Amino acid sequence: MFYADYHTHSSFSTDSETPMEETIKAAIGLGMKEIAVTDHIDFDFPDPAWPFLFDYAPYRAEVERLRGIYGSQISILLGVELGLQRHVYGEIDQFLKDNQFDFVIGSSHCVDQCDLCAPDFFVGKTKEEAYEAYFEDVLYHVEHCPVFNVYGHIDFISRYGGYEDKTLSYAQYAPVLDNIFRALIAQGKGLEINTSGFRYGLNRTHPQVDLLKRYYELGGRILTVGSDAHKPEDIGADFAVAYELMKEVGFADVTRFQNRMVRK
Ligand SMILES: [Zn+2]
Ligand SMILES: [Zn+2]
């Protein structure tokens, strides 16, 4: 199996202080053959203290500088993690027209213009209502803004809301999840296994295994593995579990990308 971390953050992200070079060196140290740097762009993030934007030119220049130094040891993909919100589709389209990337993750960090890390979105909703509304929003993005290659941490909602029981089962949300997976597959888009769930105390990956199994069962084959590291020591974290899971579900290998297309 091809060993690569397809979800990493550096100091170009508002929530990371890690020089990109440290990220690359950590991946080389682990014997990875490829890494995607996927810093955050979240247009109109609700909390102005966290703008989650970066300038493309210096970002690209840093990737190119590092390719110059480390290119013989590791392939470095110019990626981005785009925060999807319905009212910023125009900005997202323009951003992707203006700037070249190898790999794009689409993620839901906000729903109804509420940051999911904050309590607002959950007020007045039961856990089931909140999770359902989140997945309906994910489905809307897959259907109306399929600019990404893989959907990031697709059950991200299960991290938040402050519920004692944070479990989420496929069976409970089967209709909307099936619609999401079918729409992803029809459009040639995929999922990632994001290992950050272990670091958030969930003791599992995003998505959890029953969602991944259903995606596979419906025909989904496009899959990446990412740590969502914001620090060099988290690069490749819990990848042994993720790769085992991937094999167990039936995936032959991870998918590689270049120029926002599956690399054959
Ligand atoms: Zn994210
Ligand atoms: Zn991330």
List the helices and strands and how they pair.
Blueprint: E1 4-8, H1 20-29, E2 34-41, H2 56-70, E3 75-83, H3 89-98, E4 103-107, E5 110-111, E6 114-115, H4 127-144, E7 150-151, H5 174-186, E8 190-194, H6 196-199, H7 209-217, E9 223-226, H8 239-249, E10 257-258, E11 261-262
Parallel strand pairs: 1-2, 2-3, 3-4, 4-7, 7-8, 8-9
Antiparallel strand pairs: 5-6, 10-11
The protein binds zinc ion (2 copies).
Could you explain how this protein is built, in words?
This protein has 264 residues and is α/β, with parallel strands linked by helices. 34% of the residues lie in helices and 17% in strands. Strands 1-2-3-4-7-8-9 form a 7-stranded parallel beta sheet. It has a two-stranded antiparallel ribbon with strand order 5-6. β1 (4-8), α1 and β2 (34-41) form a beta-alpha-beta unit. α1 packs parallel to α2. The radius of gyration is 17 Å and the shape is globular. The model has no long low-confidence stretch (mean pLDDT 96). It binds zinc ion (2 copies).
